[in-house]
Amino acid sequence: DAVLDLSGIEKTYNRGLPSEVGVLRGLDLRVAKGEVVALVAPSGAGKSTLLHIAGLLDTADAGTVAIAGRAMTGLSDRARTEARRREVGFVYQFHHLLPEFTAAENVILPQLANGTARREAEAKAMALLDLVGVAPRAGHRPAALSGGEQQRVAFCRALANRPKLLLADEPTGNLDPETSDRVFATLLKLVRDTGLSALIATHNLDLARRMDRVVRLDAGRII
Ligand code: ADP
Ligand code: ADP
């Protein structure tokens, strides 16, 4: 019962040009239900490419992608976008919160976009902000929050629509080491509390070791 199942994934950029670069070369990766997997890769190895394909933001040249048992290969752009909104949450190194909205509103808005009623969306946002200890700051705009608080709000936004899979790219990479440590612990707790499955890219081996399994991306495959 894999939540993410990547099989035989191949991706080449600029095919046929002098600048052609084969990034993923028959990559296989499975993330089980409730499993938290660390993805470790040197810069340029194709980590972002892999996360974008797993998160239905980009398509592979070959291979299959399944999320929660559903084949995502060969979908129309529209069906893929719908599946992404429903099934996947993303967290990046920078929070990308909307600056003109409060922390709470940043967690509410994606729910409204998905058709959740306002009252329910507000309650969900407050429950999530409470889980990560930012509820007292819910009425502040991102600029008034610390880096760690901003990133915690971004975690809540990613989980607001109850995705099955969380994909994170250096989720605490822009924080100082001590804050990074604490905020990362919060992310892990949130993932555990909500029963999510996660694939989390990081350069930090100490953080990687706190996850269920560490995989390495090398020469276009998982080793
Ligand atoms: P990472 O996230 O591990 O640093 P990326 O997935 O961003 O790696 O990139 C892997 C390789 O693919 C790099 O050599 C990069 O230059 C190349 N690449 C990434 N995106 C594109 C693109 N849109 N067009 C051409 N080459 C790309
Ligand atoms: P409860 O079911 O009592 O609300 P949970 O521990 O299941 O307690 O959830 C705590 C909070 O996290 C609740 O607000 C819940 O809606 C939210 N939550 C639970 N699962 C998910 C999920 N997969 N994605 C996002 N939020 C979730």
UniProtKB/TrEMBL annotation:
Protein keywords: ATP-binding, Nucleotide-binding, Transport
SUPFAM superfamilies: P-loop containing nucleoside triphosphate hydrolases
UniProt KW GTP-binding keyword: no
InterPro entries per the UniProt record, alphabetical: AAA+_ATPase, ABC_transporter-like_ATP-bd, ABC_transporter-like_CS, ABC_transpr_LolD-like, MacB-like_ATP-bd, P-loop_NTPase
Span of domain ABC transporter: 4-223
Nucleotide-binding as UniProt keyword: yes
SMART domains: AAA
A GO MF term: ATP binding
Similarity annotation: Belongs to the ABC transporter superfamily.
Entry-linked PANTHER family: IMPORT ATP-BINDING PROTEIN (PTHR24220), LIPOPROTEIN-RELEASING SYSTEM ATP-BINDING PROTEIN LOLD (PTHR24220:SF689)
Identification of the protein by name: ABC transporter ATP-binding protein
